Amino acid sequence: MIENNELTMNTESRLSFEEFRKEVLADYRLACESREVSLLARKEVLTGKAKFGIFGDGKEVAQIAMAKYFQPGDFRSGYYRDQTFAFATGIATPEQFFSQMYADPDLANEPFSGGRQMNSHFSTPNLAKDGNWLDLTSIKNTATDMSPTAAQMPRALGLAFASKLFRNVEVLKEFTKLSNNGNEICFATIGDASTSEGHFWETMNAAGVLQVPLAVFVWDDGYGISVPRKYQTTKDSISAALEGFRKSEDSNGFDIYKVKGWDYAAMCETFEAGIRKIRETHTPALFHVEEMTQPQGHSTSGSHERYKTKDRLAWEKEFDCNHQMRQWILENALSDEATLLSVEAEAKTVAQDARKNAWEKYINPVRQHVQQMLSHGEAVAGLPDVDNGRIRTLLHDLQVNREPLRRDILKTAATILFTHKRVKAPEMDALRTYYEDLLARERNNYNSLLYAEGVNAVSSVQAEPAVYANDAVSLNGYEILNKYFDQLIENNPRVFAFGEDVGKIGDVNQGFAGLQQKHGTDRIFDTGIRELTIMGQGIGMALRGLRPIAEIQYLDYLIYGLQPLSDDVASLQYRTKGMQYCPIIVRTRGHRLEGIWHSGSPMSMILGSLRGMNVCVPRNMVQAAGMYNTLLAANEPALVIESLNGYRLKEKMPQNLGSFKVQLGVPEVVHEGSDITIVSYGSTLRIIEEAIQSLERMGISCELVDVQTLLPFDINHQILESLKKTNRILFVDEDVPGGGTAYMFQQVMELQGGYKWLDVAPRTLSAQAHRPAYGSDGDYFSKPNVEDVIRVVMEMVEE
Questions:
Q1: Closest by CA position to 121, among listed 90, 78, 181, 171
Q2: Is the pTM of this model over 0.85?
Q3: Which domain of life is it from (predicted)?
Q4: Which helix (H) or strand (E) covers residue 375, if one does?
Q5: Radius of gyration over every alpha carbon of the chain, rounded to an integer in angstroms
Q6: Beta strands 668-671 and 702-706, pairing class
Q7: Phi-psi region of 47 (alpha: psi -120 to 50; beta: other; left: phi over 0)
Q8: 300 in Cβ contact with 283 (< 8 Å)
Q9: Number of Cβ within a 10 Å radius of residue 445
Q10: What does the pLDDT look like over 314-353, one tens digit per residue?
Q11: Distance from CA of residue 762 to its chain's centroid?
Q12: Which of 213, 73, 225, 234 is closest to 149 using CA atoms?
């Protein structure tokens, strides 16, 4: 006789098994759908409908297993083979995947970048247009993908580090929409060959030191494009190479797990236990997923048959993860052959429908514009004074184009308009209006949102002048900053400051002196000498709603951290079409100092690589404080370069130090004059001011303009107004020839039309082309000096 409780247990067991069976079949279904998407997508590239393709085939089962433990609030920082993970988590659909392949500019169809990024580059929003952060704890989040290998690693550290802060810093407990007590994990994925990059090693080292909830999944298919793993990795295994980093009872470090990429059951079991431990203890972990395959090779630009042996290709066919999962399902009687065949057939239909729907959504608006263009073109072709034959040939070529691009329509219209400029008729006017409207619309589709708009933009922040008491005290510049940062940390719980020597000694120039002792090691803290991941920490924190001030000790060393700032931060607004925000503030110091490595001013490098960030070059520390206030009132990223030789110069202390704001992009005339306009910024202003005193004794009146910010630059064209008065202009800075001075020259002469107001040729005065030499004489001969300024101004006035 069966007891009631035994019957209940058997019933529950059967139900549990049935639920398990359904889950396994659903996982297999998704694996098949993703594989079919990859196969179809490759064909779309080879037929020309899509430009390029890189796919996640061979990684399906591992990513499905991983996705089971990815919860709302977690963040993904992955690479471009994570399509199955995106499907499994609901971040993307197959149809959206194809829309991205076709570069559909409509965010309703391609919600990750509006056609600006290649396939498998996913995004989720983090900040609303009204300036409020979304409830990130209810979203399965992904930081926007990048193609540079291992570029996802530094920010992964920051995304995980934010969880540590949310769990440990009491003042952050109120921000319940940003974190659930720091329970969030960052899931980072990377190809095995990319673990050779320095980004990977610096990130893993920092994660082991900091003890943050970072789960790193290495997809190991044995190759880096065509280069076998043995030429890439010590001991031919990344997990073996990292054994010294393994965490023990009496050390920091991280856990290391090894699984086979075709073993569904083992991956589910390993990932479940490993992820639970990360979530509970914030111990980072590396999951080395071995024996993966890449059935279609690296990408559509090559064939893996060229570099893989027949034995390897045969092995890959046998140990393909989908094939192995199928065998496991049958061996464990979780389904029968007929059911699996049905699942596989349905998967083909799902992929085909996704491709078809995405293509129709992409091509139909283009075809509608083709018809409109043909209508306008036919009307123009019927005019008496036009080249009817040529116009109809152009229209025919457009009409028979089965896969027209927007550019084909615009080129057709432009050709007709350019070759018939003298024809005056309503039909020609209608074509011109159509062309200009379509051109403006498409330019907006592809060229907008490099910077934020609306309340999130620095341009929306109103200036607030500094207010001084009659008896305002004068303090050293570093003391002004110290008092400012003290107020800032006290009043804004989301602000954190960190970098090399920022914590205990209060930074090398004492801007944070004593503040760690006052506000705690969680708010102001030291890091290792690792500029790349200092930037990564700041990026991840900013993506999660914090306001990090991440310090690069000297401007010369910005280049160590430049890649994530350029490829990630600066392009973020653009490549997500305004959907994702990263309001990091990078604080550094530079310009004049007597040493080859601590006196750099590589502004052309910065201006060329950081379009999309604000670049502030304050002449003193009061101005710097006003710029920090402005930046913290908006949600845009910025680089603030303080003047290295200005920390011990006296400045008056404003009464409203914590609230006054310097409007970015608005220059300031710091010395009025009538004979010549001199444009500069930062430490060089003091050189010019000394020169001006001598020039005025010679009867030459100079107007000195401090640009204050290089990005944005003189948004109201105030420099032009000065030039209209003086009719002479000289641009001076400490960058190499053709660098920052050439940039300012182009902005004023070309964009502002300054050439119209010149009486003499404009000039630039820069540093020498080499690194500045050591010592006082080295500084004098390497960079613009007082006598250089006097000589050039005299030449221009006498010309």
A1: 78
A2: yes
A3: Bacteria
A4: helix 337-381
A5: 30
A6: antiparallel
A7: alpha
A8: no
A9: 16
A10: 999 999 999 999 999 999 999 999 999 999 999 999 999 9
A11: 37
A12: 225
CA-to-CA distance for 146 and 116, rounded, in angstroms? 12
How deeply is 426 buried, as exposed, middle or buried, from its count of CB atoms within 10 A (0-12, 13-18, 19+)? Answer: exposed
Residue 65 near residue 264 (C-beta atoms within 8 A): yes
**What are the two backbone dihedrals, phi and then psi, of residue 717, each rounded to the nearest 5 degrees?**
60, 45
pLDDT at 15 over 70: no
Report how far residue 66's alpha carbon sits from residue 73's, in angstroms, rounded to the nearest whole number.
Answer: 15
* Closest C-alpha to 744, from 643, 648, 673, 667: 667
Q: Which residue has the tokens 């540093």?
A: 767
Cβ atoms of 283 and 344 closer than 8 Å:
no
Beta strands in 745-794 (DSSP E): 763-765
Helices assigned H by DSSP within 637-761: 684-697, 718-726, 740-746
Q: Is the dihedral of CA 686, 691, 694, 698 positive or negative?
A: negative
pLDDT higher than 80, residue 5: no
Q: What is d(CA 297, CA 320) in angstroms, rounded to the nearest whole number?
A: 13
pLDDT digits (tens, 9 = 90+) for 396-449: 999 999 999 999 999 999 999 999 999 999 999 999 999 999 999 999 999 999
* Cα(478)–Cα(498) distance, integer angstroms: 17
Measured between its terminal Cα atoms, the distance across the chain in Å is 115
Calculated CA dihedral for residues 98, 100, 104, 105, nearest 10 degrees:
160
Read off the pLDDT of residues 126-148 as tens digits, 9 standing for 90 and up. 999 999 999 999 999 999 999 99
Report d(CA 348, CA 39) in Å as an integer: 10
Q: Quick check: 730 and 684 in contact, CB under 8 A?
A: no
Q: What is residue 448's predicted lDDT score, i.e. its pLDDT?
A: 96
Strand order in the sheet with 676-680: 668-671, 702-706, 676-680, 729-732, 763-765
Strand pairing category for 75-77 and 186-191: parallel
